[in-house]
Amino acid sequence: MYIRRLCWPSRLQCARRAAVPRHVQCRQQEAHRWKHLGCGTYRAVIFDMGGVLIPSPGKVAAEWEVRNQIPPGTILKAFVKDGENGIWMRFMRGEIKTNDFLQEFGRVCSEISKTTVPVDSFFSLMTSKQMARPFPVMTEAISQIRAKGLQTAVLSNNFYLSNGKSFLPLDRKQFDVVVESCVEGICKPDPRLYQLCLQRLGLQPSDSIFLDDLGPNLKAAASLGIHTIKVDDPETAVKELEALLGFPLRMGIPNTRPVRKNMEIPKDALQTYLKNLLGSGGPGPLELLQFDHGQSNPTYYIKWADHQLVLRKKPPGALLPSAHAVEREFRIMRALANAGVPVPTVLDLCEDLSVVGTPFYLMEYCPGLIYKDPSLPGLDPSHRRAIYTAMNKALCTIHSVDLKATGLEGYGKQGDYLPRQVQTWTKQYRAAETSTIPAMERLIQWLPLHLPQEQRTTVVHGDFRLDNLLFHPEKPEVLAVLDWELSTLGDPLSDVAYSCLAHYLPSSFPLLRGFSDQDVRQLGIPSAEEYFRMYCLHMGIPAIENWNFYLAFSFFRVAAILQGVYKRSLTGQASSATAGQSGKLAEFMSNLAWDFATKEGFRIFKEMPVTKPLTRSHHVWSRVQGLLSPTGTRRYSSVPEASPAHATKGDLVLSPEGLSPRVRTLYCRLQQFMEQQVYPAEPELQRHQASADRWSPSPLIEDLKDKAKAEGLWNLFLPLESDPEQKYGAGLTNVEYAHLCEVMGMSLYAPEMFNCSAPDTGNMELLVRYGTEEQKARWLIPLLEGRVRSCFAMTEPQVASSDATNIEASIREEDGVYVINGRKWWISGILDPRCQLCVFMGKTDPQAPRHQQQSVLLVPMDTPGIQVIRPLTVYGLDDAPGGHGEVLFERVRVPKENIVLGPGRGFEIAQGRLGPGRIHHCMRLIGFSERALALMKARVKSRVAFGKPLVEQGTILADIAQSRVEIEQARLLVLKTAHLMDVAGNKAAALEIAMIKMVAPSMAYRVIDRAIQAFGAAGLSGDYPLAQFFAWARALRFADGPDEVHRLAVARMELKPRA
Ligand SMILES: Cc1cc2nc3c(=O)[nH]c(=O)nc-3n(C[C@H](O)[C@H](O)[C@H](O)COP(=O)(O)OP(=O)(O)OC[C@H]3O[C@@H](n4cnc5c(N)ncnc54)[C@H](O)[C@@H]3O)c2cc1C
Questions:
Q1: Hey, whose CA ends up nearest to atom 2 of ligand 1?
Q2: Measured in whole angstroms, how far is the alpha carbon of residue 33 from the centre of its chain?
Q3: What is the pLDDT of residues 472-484, one digit of tens each?
């Protein structure tokens, strides 16, 4: 009978006022009085419940789903299904009784998840004691607010049980006003609910502050004039509230609570011990609190006279062998304090069981901040990054400790750390095993077989994660590394892998919160790979290849620990309240570990030599008939019959994991540069490209070029084949470059930053291959240094330039110089003020055989007679500052020594130049496509239409699958083409070059088009790179020759007689 609608506001208001308890009325008067004292402008704080005072139903649902093996997101989807008219909202407004709700809600959930969903159990959880445990920080804030005479109110939804009784998981006495949506018949974000609350508080909107975790609710309150605070993390929200109210809301020791039942320690004995240790404590009783932390070893805060101390002890009861060794913690912390590692100052180790019943040690209390949520809500991205960088550096400090100097040589066995650890944790797991976990069984088999060959030995922390670090409150500095229980001597990389745990766990994961469901780039947190590279950089060590082994091992170890916690929770020994959940979590964790083991397996597989023989050797190619099988299909050797030349020219590496260590390092560095420098610069570069200054190069590009050069990410394109001594470039094979070029292709701005952009790359390669020493000195060197830019002028408006023999521009010899006349268009890069060289193709002898009429001249752009008439646009985009120009050449006089190779060699040069250029475009197109698909996937996961996320629509799934398949197909052909160029030369790879030029632009065009469609109108805008990618992919069906010409070439080669 609690269903009532807001039909009679005035009557209801009277009834409510009469119903306001006396203590509330008194508090209203107090608030009034307080206002006159002039202590601030706000008079009330209104709280939402879920996600503000107690855990949000969404998070509770996510955890419950994991435990009950319900498809993730089911409950959340059921919450929002049918919006305002959905079952959840109707229940929240009290329009439906609990039993009816449960029945209907269960049906909706089962429909969504295609499985039976025990919603009763979820509802029981929502109305259980577990929920009735409000966030301590909020409870404390409420009492401080009230102590200052301000009013408090709470907006609740529906917490009525099937028996009609209300289960409000809060103490009603903490609030002057409690508004329950199910009683009022209206629900947030309906503004009437806030108005009702204000009426009952007797206040105006501007007198109050409202806290909620949901944007629409906050928006509605703000539209009335209520000040709002978004709650992502209760601790941060309380800080914001403190700032608004102007008085502190936290008086106690952070992260502590009254000592838990069964965890009490005898105060008298402790006080006597403290007196003996520290001398007389002075007046006052001993205060004891328990830290929320200390899953394994209970940890207490002690205030005794002027002393603020921390006591850490073994848990009571029978313990697993060698676990909970507080003696070792004491020893290592004392030793590390002298070695510059930030640790709390330890005072004493007490092994006398008569004091608190177990051995313990004592340290000074060190005030500081502990970030419990690793996604660092409430901080800005740069701050988050700084926190993770400080964490990384602290780990490096630990791993750099001199074992001899600190006397820690005997702290653990040296060498063979990983085999011993695998054994130890297998034993620990077996000792705590309650049922068979398949992934654990597989890992127990797999880990010993994949142990790394080389390992270093340093101090390892063993539990190095963000919430074991105490930070300076004002700067990103680690004040103390806590919890050394699992420390020993061992392989430091296991610590690094373990410290990335949060990257792989969802935010709803109980016990160990993570952020795998959030976008780390947006958060500003370094990705796990980046974090690892950062570590290698700080330590000055090379990156390892079997990183996934370390992740598999670390997560296996956590799974074994969780299983131990679970077993102890069954016997009532575990100190954490949530320890009972850890059984299911051990299983989840072991599955995660197995995923990494699988990845490591793939890495090893990909590097196996089976990928190498997929080659065609010179002599096979030269005998055309040998190339074709009797069925007419092309044949490749699966036996390494290659010449010695081939052996040095490179392997067909199908994925970046298979690259040689040197190239892999370059690849990782490039990826890091893209993440740290290129993507963040895109908005600024785009702004520049849309501004009036766009025809001048962006200074940011120049700056990033310097940075890329400093990192050795420069001139990567020049193939080993044309630069065998690596005089000019990075000495990569075409296959190696294909992997790197794909990464560069992910941003339209990136290639230039690495001096790897067209048309300069083609021109530089032309100069390397065919230029004289003088030509190289004059043009190649400045181009390689990135000081100048260049263009390539072949296409002409008046003739069909797909056929290069058509071109008409003339190059005539007059008075010992060449004189050029002609009109060109679509000349990319010619408008760039840095463009100093035009590689010009014209006819020197129209009477010569068809393919010997053309010549290539190097024309300085400042030669009189060159006139850029206009920039052309591609779908309205002008590609400033390089642009694509229409240009008139009128009596342009060029010295004779500027001819390349000699008269009549132009056709040959153009073919040689375009080969690598074409494939570079194709490599970048794979990058465009990967980025478009990644953007599409992220978008469709977050947008909901017609009651479900777009990603669940069948057509979207089909589009994603189709795009993945097409990208993979095209990439394989790119790699095969690059490989043939490496082992047989550009000419021999002509067929593959033509094929990939046919395939890649159309593939990218389709993939990008699908991404745009899934994005909605935003996909066409300048807010995302998709529209520009699309325009480029379309243009590349012309540039370097239209599709049809390449199709013709393929067909002609296919039809060549076989005999
Ligand atoms: C963004 C962009 C940048 C460019 N940059 C440069 C540059 O830097 N330097 C430069 O010199 N050029 C550049 N070009 C020009 C480009 O190389 C030419 O557009 C291309 O070679 C086609 O020549 P065309 O435009 O004269 O088309 P045409 O030769 O007139 O051909 C028109 C159409 O006829 C059809 N066709 C042609 N041949 C055949 C055939 N054999 N069988 C069937 N159908 C056929 C095709 O559909 C073709 O698209 C660029 C073009 C674009 C779009």
A1: 1039
A2: 52
A3: 988 899 999 999 9
